[in-house]
Amino acid sequence: MKKVFKWIGIVLGSLVGLILVLVAVLFLVGNSRLNKTYDFPPDNIAIPTDAESIARGEHMTKMLCTGCHGTDLSGVANWFPAGPFGSMDAPNLTSGKGGIGQEYTSDEEYVFAMRHGVDPEGKPIFMPAVVGFSFMSDEDLGAIIAYLKTAPPVDQERNGRNFSALAKIMLGAGLFGELPVEAVSHNAHVTAPAAGATVEYGQYLVAIGDCISCHGADLAGGPFPDPSVSILAPNLTPAGELAEWSEQGFIAAMRTGIKPGGEAMDPKYMPWKDIGMASDDELKAMFMYLQSLPALEQATGQ
Question: Long-range contacts of range 81-86, CB-CB < 8 Å, 24 or more positions apart?
Fold first, then answer.
């Protein structure tokens, strides 16, 4: 009997040892992914200085950036409260104290962050919008950077990214998917279709708005990227509820947060306030594109 217990102890001890080794390896892999240094060639994107381009950049920033970084772009504390996985503040995008304008010393560093997902040292940043911004034209990207460099400075220190050991272990195991720098194609130059109320321009706006991150690659909806959210992202194809909406109903919903049927949209899950910053023609273009999609059944992820 003693020998049996001895062997049971040896087996259990070996299993515990193997588990500890595996955990250590996954931690190192996750930490390595977070600290990997990337070296991309310069994109050489022209950053304009004229008033019209800066105004365009302000418009795009209001649509695409203020939802995460605040209306004054000073960042948001605990923007990503991940419980046991750590926390992350949305950074201050201005040139005030604590802002990236104090850290970024060249136009190219802004480009690397927004198009490639790396900081001035070449290390990954956790900026989900990078996936959408990878489809953004050089002209629009340059206009946004031009505006950020001239936006009113706000003094506000933020705490950055603080991932726990558990988060790094899960990252090493691939449970968090790809980091933004790992997910994008890193195309050097991107062009956009002519602005206007067209299907093509609507497709461009939906792409740079990263609607697929919540609504799925084919926009048929499905589980939210945050596993703690149990509701499904709705189907945006003509098989979903948008089939019953009119163009004016869509525009009104994005401006007021109230669907044509009277139901309120929760801004926590649907950033209608940001989308509502778009012009009428931009909203028309988005609606035209969504209506042009193949009618697909609501995705459930099962």
Answer: 82/167, 84/164, 84/166, 84/167, 85/163, 85/164, 85/166, 85/167, 85/170, 86/161, 86/162, 86/163, 86/164, 86/167
- Spell out the residues 6+ positions from residue 92 whose beta carbon is closer than 8 angstroms to its own: 69, 73, 74, 75, 98, 99, 100, 154, 156, 157, 158
Quote the tokens at residue 300.
């459930």
Q: What is the distance between the alpha carbons of residues 232 and 148, in angstroms, rounded to a whole number?
A: 34
Contact 138, 57 (CB under 8 A): no
pTM, full prediction: 0.90
pLDDT digits (tens, 9 = 90+) for 93-142: 999 999 999 999 999 999 999 999 999 999 999 888 999 999 999 999 99
Counting Cβ atoms within 10 Å, is residue 137 exposed (0-12), middle (13-18) or buried (19+)?
middle
